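Q: Hi! First time doing this. I have a protein sequence and I read that you can turn it into a structure. Is that right? Here it is:
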Amino acid sequence: MLFQIHEESKISIKRLTDADLKRSPKSHQTHIGLSNNSLTFMKDNKTEYTAMLIYNSMCDFMQCEVGKILRKDGRQDAPNIKTGGKDDNIVNSIREFAKEKPDNPFYLIWFGLDTETPVFWLICKGSTDYLILSKFFDFSILGDGGRSRNMITLDYGDLGFAEILQYAKEKLQSVSLDLQKELEMSVEMETDNPKFKDSDVKKARSYIQELGRSGEEIINEYLAKEKHKGFVSDYEWANKSGEVGNPYDFYIKYAGGNEQWVDVKTTEHEFDQAVIVSKREIKFITQKSDTQYAIFRVYSKEETQARLKICSGCLKYIKKLQRDIEYMDASMADYKAFLVNYKISFVPGIHSFGSVSNEILLNR
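A: Yes, that's right. Below is the predicted 3D structure, encoded as C-alpha cells:
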C-alpha cells in the first residue's frame, strides 16, 4: 500500500464552526484552526503546501498551507490550514462541499501519512462515514465552538481509537486507489507530477521495485510447477541474482520445443492497469516472432496470492507503435530534436495482444 498512516497514530476530530465553513457572509476567517497536539511529526518551523483531502468517495492531493500559528511574542501555537493565494485549495474545497448541505454539521478528521503529508477527512453528519464512526466515537461531545470544546485528539489510550484507526486505514486504501495508480504510473514513466512530493515518489519507487521483484518470484514458482508437470522442459530466470538489465525476465523452453522470452509486469491493481515498455523492450519484441514473446501480467497481487494472465501475440501492435514513433522521431529531426530513452504505456487486452489467457490464480 503506497499510502499509510504515520506511526504517530494520532487522530484529531473537530466540529467545524460557521466561521470555519464561512457560512456567515460577515465571516472573513481565512483559516481552519487545528488541535495543538496534532500533527506533532511536523517540525515547528515547517510548513506543508500540499495535503490530501477525503470527502465521501473523493480523494485527492490539493494545495494546502499547513503550519503552526506564530504569535506576536514569537511563540508558535497550534497548527492551522489557510486558504492561501489560490482558489483550488483544501479550505475552499471544504467550504464548497459544506454548501451542499448548509443546515448539516460537518466534522473534520485529520492525521498524517508516513511520508509526513497531512490528511484531512471531511465528514457530514448523517453520511455513511459518520454513521460508521459513531459506533466508536460520540460526536455529540463536540460543541459548535465558543466556550464548548469542539475538537479532540485521540490515540491508543482512548476508548474506540483502535476501531477508528482501522476504519481510517480501510477508508484511505479504498478511496485513494486512483491516486495510487496515478503515482505508480508517474514513477514508472519517470514523469514529474507536481501532485506528489519527493518523499511520495521515493517511497513509490522503492515499493514498485519490491513489487516487481516479488512478481518475478511468483512466476519463478509458477514455472517450477509447470516444469514439474511436464509442460515446461526448462526455463531461465534472468534476474535471479539481481536485476541485470535484460529486456526480458524469463526465457522458457516448452515441452513441445517452442521457446519464449517473457517480461513480467506486476501490479497490485486490476489487470487493465496500463503496462509500460521501454524503447529497448520495443526493439527486442520486434526482433522476435509473434509467438516468441509474451507478457506475464501479474495483477491483484496480495501477500499470499496473485492473479496471472499470459498475454502474447503483440508483434503487430508493437510494430505499429514503433512505426508511429519512428515517424515522429523523423519529424522532430527537422528541429534538431530526437527521442532518446522513451517509454510507452498501454492497456493490455485484445486490442494489443492476439491472445490473452484465462485468469490463473497463483497461491504462495
